[in-house]
Amino acid sequence: MSDIGRRAGLPIATVYRIVGKLHSWGALERCPDGGCHICLRLWEKGVLAPRSELIEAARPHLAELCRRTSTVATLAVHDGGDSVCLLSLPGEAELQGVLMEAGRRLPLHATSSGLVLLAQASVSLQDEICDGPLHACTAATITDGAALRSCLAMVRRDGYAVVRGAFTEGRGGISAPVFGGDGAVVAPLGALRVTQLLSETRVAADAVTKRIRTETPRFTETGP
């Protein structure tokens, strides 16, 4: 409880009251050591969100991308200044890369998915990210606002983003946008040539876009 209070900036009495209500509702479960963890009730509510439809629309195409390239395939969306992983499917053997946990957040300016999402985001969000401090995750991270704006213009022009070592040294990714669902399909750079991986990734992203626009009309109003 004290950890929650410290991180939330709330008095311990308030934390006890809120946690008690969440526990009664089924959102939190108490652990034997006195801590808490998220419970099934939140997952039940989460699958009712529109994003769950985006996940199901993307799943078969990400699975095909995994099969054709033997790499991890990931679906991400943006939330504020972060990209958020919605779905990550494993590849095979030495090409599989790192399987990302659903819900993991990564900075927009330091990842291929983030650059694709930011390039298609509102001008106000682009200004906020480019004008704000840009944390250097590695020596390859873009930390200059003008350089980031130039990079975003190139991503919009080319329709994809390739990043090498900007978030984690020795690792990279390639991403293509999903239009109509505010998303991006991501595959890690590995032994495959960039041109081959780019082609497969864009095919997957285009297939997800088509499925969203034909089967999930609510997303067509949200833009890219």
Short description:
By secondary structure, the chain is α+β, with helices and mostly antiparallel strands. It has helices spanning 2-8, 12-25, 40-46, 50-69, 112-119, 123-131, 145-158, 194-215; strands spanning 28-30, 36-38, 73-79, 82-89, 105-107, 161-164, 172-178, 183-188.
Would you give an account of this structure?
It is a single chain. The protein has 224 residues and is α+β, with helices and mostly antiparallel strands. The chain has two domains: 45 residues, no CATH class; 172 residues, GAF domain (Beta-Lactamase). 45% of the residues lie in helices and 18% in strands. The protein has a six-stranded antiparallel sheet. The chain has a two-stranded antiparallel ribbon with strand order 1-2. It holds the Pfam family IclR_C. InterPro entries: GAF-like_dom_sf, HTH_MetabolicPath_Reg, Tscrpt_reg_IclR_C, WH-like_DNA-bd_sf, WH_DNA-bd_sf. This is Transcriptional regulator. GO terms for molecular function: DNA binding; DNA-binding transcription factor activity.
